[in-house]
């Protein structure tokens, strides 16, 4: 793990931000698309989670005006003078952040707000974010979160039905719990000048999401990429009217690796800025995470050790962005000793 020895003013050290060459864009039909009103939706969701760990959702039921209003309010916040935005930072972990991603030296061409999605809990930095904005901003956040949570519950309950997990709310109740450790992240990736040899700046470096499920919506600016099974990176065509669902590390563990937590990243666009909002659905801190007994009855077949969400979250916070965090929680295969004659 590499830790920056002292705070760095990245506006004066832009060279610290990594760059990549752009990759070919997948055609839209290459990304799994699930219509939530389709009778076959639950089957399509499970197949997408197994093959990609990622899929696009249409006919999701979230009102378009809610998505548009939150996007506009986010744009208004990010347009504030830097001195006002800085009052809500640095994130601990909630609040405003600028180019620094986490405490371990990761950087990107990004500024963001991280908000607790649980109205029962608050933080000083979250309160400061709302003090810098009109009341309508808080209202937009609360209304959006109410509807986006319903999407996540519906998706997880469809997963449970298709996999034969009983009761049906085994997964979704972790997010419904009043102590659910969930959050909402609003990202702003400013337009970036093209680097030498057509390289582009990294907005958010490659990583997986540690929670159970992530629900992402963005404006129509490209930049999101996912890593597929053969290790190649493919670009995801943007769609401001739809949501993109990521399998998180916790869900990979609960399905004993049947679902894969998708590695993804965002590259900055050279022509226009990108705004994204992501709901990260996490369980309560005390929740035990392990392969579900109904899917893997014998503990000898578990690929992962049991851990609490608090333990995993703490471990993830201490890691670099691109680290394989689940490695610390994988069970080591039993060695068989053969008698040599």
UniProtKB/TrEMBL annotation:
Q: Which PROSITE patterns match?
A: FE2OG_OXY (PS51471)
Superkingdom is Eukaryota
State whether keyword Iron applies.
Answer: yes
Q: Tell me, what does this protein do in biology? A: Catalyzes the 2-beta-hydroxylation of several biologically active gibberellins, leading to the homeostatic regulation of their endogenous level. Catabolism of gibberellins (GAs) plays a central role in plant development. Converts GA9/GA20 to GA51/GA29 and GA4/GA1 to GA34/GA8.
The answer to whether keyword Iron applies is yes
A molecular function annotated in GO for this UniProt entry is: metal ion binding
Q: Which InterPro entries match?
A: DIOX_N, IPNS-like_FE2OG_OXY, IPNS-like_sf, Iron_ascorbate_oxido_reductase, Oxoglu/Fe-dep_dioxygenase_dom
The UniProt record lists the Fe2OG dioxygenase domain at 179-283
Describe the family membership recorded for this protein in Swiss-Prot or TrEMBL.
Belongs to the iron/ascorbate-dependent oxidoreductase family. GA2OX subfamily.
Keywords linked to the UniProt accession? Dioxygenase, Iron, Metal-binding, Oxidoreductase
* Protein name per the record: gibberellin 2beta-dioxygenase
Q: Which PANTHER family match?
A: 2-OXOGLUTARATE (2OG) AND FE(II)-DEPENDENT OXYGENASE SUPERFAMILY PROTEIN-RELATED
EC number of the protein: 1.14.11.13
Q: List the catalysed reactions.
A: gibberellin A1 + 2-oxoglutarate + O2 = gibberellin A8 + succinate + CO2
Q: Extract the Pfam families matched here.
A: 2OG-FeII_Oxy, DIOX_N
The pathway it acts in is:
Hormone biosynthesis; Plant hormone biosynthesis; gibberellin biosynthesis
């Amino acid at each position: 793990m590499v830790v920056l020895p002292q705070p760095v003013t990245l506006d004066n050290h832009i060279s610290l931000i990594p760059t990549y060459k752009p990759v070919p864009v997948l055609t839209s039909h290459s990304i799994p698309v699930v219509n939530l009103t389709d009778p076959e939706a639950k089957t399509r969701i499970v197949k997408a989670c197994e093959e990609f760990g990622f899929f696009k959702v249409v006919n999701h039921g979230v009102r378009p005006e809610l998505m548009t209003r939150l996007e506009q309010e986010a744009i208004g916040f990010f347009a504030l003078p830097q001195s006002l935005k800085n009052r809500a930072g640095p994130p601990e972990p909630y609040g405003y952040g600028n180019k620094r991603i986490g405490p371990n030296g990761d950087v990107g061409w990004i500024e963001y707000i991280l908000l607790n999605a649980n109205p029962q809990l608050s933080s000083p930095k979250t309160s400061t974010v709302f003090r810098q904005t009109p009341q309508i901003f808080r209202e937009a956040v609360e209304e959006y979160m109410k509807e986006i949570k319903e999407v996540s519950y519906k998706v997880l309950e469809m997963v449970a039905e298709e996999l034969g997990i009983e009761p049906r709310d085994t997964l979704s109740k972790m997010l419904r719990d009043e102590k659910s450790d969930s959050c909402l992240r609003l990202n702003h990736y400013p337009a970036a000048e093209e680097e030498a040899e057509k390289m582009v700046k990294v907005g958010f470096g490659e990583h997986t999401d540690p929670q159970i499920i992530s629900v992402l919506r963005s404006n129509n600016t490209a930049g999101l990429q996912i890593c597929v099974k053969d290790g190649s990176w493919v670009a995801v065509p943007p769609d401001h009217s739809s949501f993109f669902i990521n399998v998180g590390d916790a869900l990979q563990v609960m399905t004993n690796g049947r679902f894969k937590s998708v590695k993804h990243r965002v590259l900055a666009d050279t022509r226009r800025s990108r705004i994204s909002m992501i709901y990260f659905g996490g369980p309560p801190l005390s929740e035990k995470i392990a392969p579900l007994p109904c899917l893997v009855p014998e503990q000898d077949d578990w690929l992962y050790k049991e851990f609490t969400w608090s333990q995993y979250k703490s471990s993830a916070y201490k890691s670099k962005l691109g680290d394989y965090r689940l490695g610390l929680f994988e069970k080591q295969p039993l060695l068989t000793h053969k008698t040599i004659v």
